Amino acid sequence: MPIHPTALVHPNARLGRDVTIGPQAIIEEHVEIGDGCVIGPRASVLAYTTLGPGCRLHTGAVLGDIPQDLGFKGERSYLRVGAGCIFREYVTIHRGTGEETETVIGDHCFIMGSVHLAHNVHLGRQVIIANATLLAGHVEVGDRAFISGAVVVHQFVRIGRVAMLGGACAVGQDVPPFCTVEPMQGNLLSGLNVVGMKRAGLTLEQRAEVKDAFRLLYRSDLTVSEAVARIRERFPEGSPAREMADFVAASKRGICKLSRNAESDDSGME
Fold first, then answer.
1. Would you say residue 268 has pLDDT above 90?
2. Burial level of 36, CB count in 10 A (0-12/13-18/19+)?
3. CATH 1.20.1180.10 spans which residues of the chain?
């Protein structure tokens, strides 16, 4: 287990097999690091953080620091990281605010340089977040979502499965599953994430269902609640279309609107 002599590793930290810890890295008490993890130079894994196997922290990444939240009073909270995650240079991720709460990063996420994930953020599996993006507290991100660089996301916003956020956009409302947000805009969708749906394994029939649901939500004269009811009538539980309707129905912040310049949602569906 190669640990650089300048690294500071608390004797009570729990390290798995074949863990590598680089120069001047810091591993605090109440930390558990899974098999095969690599902790890079000057990276820090702080108290009440758990890393699944096969994670990699690059230079200067800080995982598990206390929240930047005036409501935090020193209570015990956690950061839980799944398997096979990559955290590039100077990523910062904070543990939860609230006794026994947690920030959660799912398996095989790729978090690029200088990204900040605030307290109580929950990421699903295989989420990709590009450089210099900021997620505020309690943001939820679904599996396989892609968030481009320099994006800012308001607290308590939900981003649905296989959604894609364009670069330098600002999001203060929920982004339904399978949708894309326009770059350099605020709360505006540009259409459906067709490529993302294909890569996620949705069949042609499933993608067509999503397209129909999208039309009802954004290109009909129905209110949002009427569109949700219509989608629930037409599509069975467990279908991607119902997933979209249920996501929208559960929204507390409202959902992003469709840009007037949005292309037809028919494009690229085959």
1. no
2. middle
3. 197-258
Identify the architecture of domain 8-138 in CATH: 3 Solenoid (2.160)
The proportion of the chain whose per-residue pLDDT surpasses 70, expressed as a percent, equals 97
Specify the CATH class of 197-258 in words.
mainly alpha
The torsion defined by the Cα of 139, 145, 151 and 156, in degrees rounded to 10, comes to -10
- Dump pLDDT digits (tens) for 95-125: 999 999 999 999 999 999 999 999 999 999 9
Label residues 237-269 b or e (16+ Cβ within 10 Å = b): eebbbbbbbebbeebeeebbebbeebeebeeee
Tell me the one-letter amino acid at 72. F
pLDDT of residue 264: 63
Q: Tell whether pTM > 0.85.
A: yes
The position carrying tokens 């629930």 is: 232
User: What are the residue ranges of CATH 2.160.10.10 in the chain?
Assistant: 8-138
